[in-house]
Amino acid sequence: MQFVTISRRRTDAFPAEAFTPELIGREAARVKELYAEGLLRQIWGRGDGGGAVIVWEAASEADVRNACESLPIFKAGMLAIEVLVPLKPYAGFGPAK
User: Is the residue at 54 inside a domain?
Assistant: First the structure.
């Protein structure tokens, strides 16, 4: 099943300098691991501020939540998951009824 998350950096609670190159590097490494595992399928940086939009492939919402919680920026309390939505196939591509 696929899911989409929209996250934002908690710049309201953390200054820009808290998002250090070391932390961002660890975040990128974890994202690559999740991609290699087949859990994270696509990722985009948000154009309206810090954060990301991610498409996940997982058996359950709990698996997605666990993956999000494994991200270093989330672990540091510096990332908020604003939206987590399960996706379903678009009916318009199926047979006409």
Answer: yes
